[in-house]
Amino acid sequence: LTVSYTYSDDDGDAESGTTVAWHLNGVAQTGQTSSTLPSSATSKGESWQAVVTPSDGENAGTPVTSGSVIIANSAPEVTSIEVSDETPDTNEAVTFTYQTGDADGDAITATEFRWLLEGGPVASLDNASTLPAVATRAGDVWTVEVRITDGEDMSDWLASADVVVGSSNQPPTVDTVTLSPASATTLDDLTASWTASDPNGDAVMETELTWMKNGVHQPEVDNVNPLPSERTSKGEVWTASVRASDGAAWSPPTSSSQQTIANAAPVASSATLESPTYSGLDPLTVNLTTEDPDGDTVELVDVRWHLNDVEQSDGAGSLVLEAGTLQRGDAWHAVITVGDGADQTVITTGTVLIVNAAPEVNITWPSEPTALIDLMPLLSVTDVDGDETTFATTWYKNGFRDASLTNATSVGAEKLAPGQEWKVMVVASDGDKTNSNEAMIVIANLQPSADITVVSSAVWFNETTLLSAETSTDADGELVHYTWSWDGTSATGSTVAVVLTEDTEIRLVVTDENGATAESTVLLDVTAGPSVQNLQVSDDANGHVDLTWTWLGGAVEFNILRNGELVGTTVDLAYQDQPPMSGANAYTIQPVNEERIFLNGADEISTTLQPIVVEEPGPASGLGYGLGALMLLALLMPPVLGSRKGGDV
Questions:
Q1: Domain containing 418: what range?
Q2: Residue 9: inside a domain, yes or no?
């Protein structure tokens, strides 16, 4: 029950603190003070009214009482209906049970039933508690409805779930489903087996197989039997479920017990013994190919080697049997064990026969061979089987065979030159097998030696100093280039002349015909050399020029240069010259010895010659003027001509 009211206040105050009191048969009920009285508090036949006292929070208004309400009878209700079979066949009758309730606790005084076929009531079955089998046909859809009364009111009809009538045919049955093999691994196909029968004697028309992995349906392999091994993995849990049909009805599914996929041992797909020669020259090696169906790591557990079918301690645990263990005629095989940590697999290789080994040829060249000594490699032939051996040699120079060296074990130095490429091929035989080896070497070019000789006896300031590289050598060839450098200047040739004014380092680089170089340096200390001193010049009226000087150096000759032209050479400290013409003349006194022509030691001086004056004599007595003149000219010509040519003192 809910009480509603309208609130008003003359002062316009808002409602605050209004109370509600419920009265049962005129008596206030202290526990009921809300505007709603719950149904659990009322019973049929009771009289209830509400008293509302308004309030604005300061003052309470006049209580107002509602009209009385008499609690009426509540109709009973059917709370549930359960049929005996929702899918009967035409041989089965259907019954039902139901539950009722009455809010007032009244007794049920009457009950009505009715059966509906395809939604329509069948009057002949009203109040029937059973749907007889004879009234049904396959495919019918029936419902039963129930209503009740407490003598005052009638409940609504309540319908049951649909009852769908099937055939009287009974479905087949599937016996126990088994999976095999019982301990399947990832290598095994999983096969489901079962038998199906039909209680009516009908033929089993169809079966349906479903697979479950770890409890999850795998529709992609429905009806696949056997289940391929590639569909399974270690640790998976599989079950198979089978149901059968006779064409009219399906049996309920029957499931197998759980099958856990077990670990599969590793698989060794191949194991062979391999060797380059299958002789005592090379080890035997197991070439093993393995895999693990579960993806586990495959590890080598053990290897056992067998000689002539007898197990040997040699090579135990190793995939390699060393060559030193092998002898011609031996028959070897290996037994290998691999595992994945849980299971192991053993595989045996085929047997191999150790054959005759070809002799081995070794060639060792001398270190840094040169053209100065014979080229003599160390040639050795060995045979692991102990057979006697022979060998032959062939020599090649720069790619061309030298027939003169057939079967030689060395090359004479006279055939060698730097940069040559020599190859020797050695073919060895043990009478059964041959083997060859070849090796190549390049004749090394020896580095030349650079040497500087100061040819001049002294290094004097601003004088020519002669240097020579002719003592430089190349032991295995010739020097083809000489390069000199000093103070930013360079020159070529086996000798060089330099004029220095300060201490200077001279660098020489020599190059041989193969491009190898060597260098040397020398530091030249420059000192002051001797020079012409006290140079004096005088001349006379006859056109003679007299030169004198002093010299404190060693023995030299002196070149006399007039106006830059050599006019004479003397070993004395004086010189007389008679220039052909009067006028200015410049003289240079230049010392010279077998080492150098002095530059800084020379000196210069100049002089000016006056013209020669010739007096004319008078005519001779008794002769004419012409005869006198001719005689005078004849007397003067020899001296004059003699004085006009240069000469020594």
A1: 360-442
A2: no
